[in-house]
Amino acid sequence: ITSEYTLKNTDIFAVAVSLITGKIVYISDQAATILNCKREVFNNANFVEFLTPKDVSVFYSFTTPYRLPSWSMCTGAESSPTECMQEKSFFCRISGGKEREGDLQYYPFRMTPYLMKVQDAELAEEQFCCLLLAERVHSGYEAPRIPPDKRIFTTTHTPNCVFQDVDERAVPLLGYLPQDLIGTPLLLKLHPSDRPLMLALHRKILQYAGQPFDHSSIRFCARNGEYVTIDTSWSSFVNPWSRKVSFVIGRHKVRMGPVNEDVFAVPAFHGGKIMDSDIQEISEQIHRLL
């Protein structure tokens, strides 16, 4: 069933995970190659053991059985686009185990989940499984590159400058998965010199009252610790009852990529990022303003 997907794209593997035990019932042959490991590591293993610990809860929330679209409904001849609207991809980092004597090497994947009945060889009975098509995500700046005119993504943040939503197009451009940014301060990811611009920007947001406008470029820190220069446009949603700004939407276009094109690389420094006092101060000023 999955071979038509996995043959077309060498970056995709398919895995069926039992919804009863969480164990891998089936995994396609490419998985070992893509994850740089031996095929035996998947035998009788729980799938979540291969995920980075902070992505486990994301995996469970997106693979709750009642949320899963049925594979047959989404791929059958009679399927209609509306039936599959609930089909939602999510992102996780997966590892095939230790590479030689190093740390675990995790790779980012876009996961598309489906509900399916699979015959278990050991139990000799059918059981409900979550079928996942996992596609490795590569940096948008490495070949095959995302063309400059398509290097666009959107974000939404709250009046107190915390990320509320991040468009999945940001993943190959910034190196973060949506769950890395949602709930974190927007200002923390900006170049320290560009943070004060946000106060002026939010004054303009009030002035334009929901209408979009362009703003000067800002430098955004990618996951590998380098800065990406983005041109930004902003608008806001004003609650018609309270007349207050509910959230702010940013549309961003990458003007200049990072020097190190691998945005998924782990940054060289490993110091715990302390919250700069200016972030707290600017956030409070913006919050008061809105």
From TrEMBL:
Keyword Repeat: yes
Keyword check for Transcription regulation: yes
PROSITE patterns with a match to the protein in the record: PAS (PS50112)
GO biological process, one term: negative regulation of transcription by RNA polymerase II
Domain of life where this protein originates: Eukaryota
SUPFAM superfamilies named in the record: PYP-like sensor domain (PAS domain)
Main location as per UniProt: cytoplasm
Protein name per UniProt: Period circadian protein homolog 2
Residues in PAS domain copies: 166-209
Alphabetized GO MF terms: transcription cis-regulatory region binding; transcription corepressor binding
Keyword list, A-Z: Biological rhythms, Cytoplasm, Nucleus, Repeat, Transcription, Transcription regulation
GO-annotated cellular components: cytoplasm; nucleus
SMART domains: PAS
Subcellular location: Cytoplasm; Nucleus
Organism in which the protein naturally occurs: Scophthalmus maximus
Pfam families the record matches: PAS_3 (PF08447), Per3-like_PAS-A (PF21353)
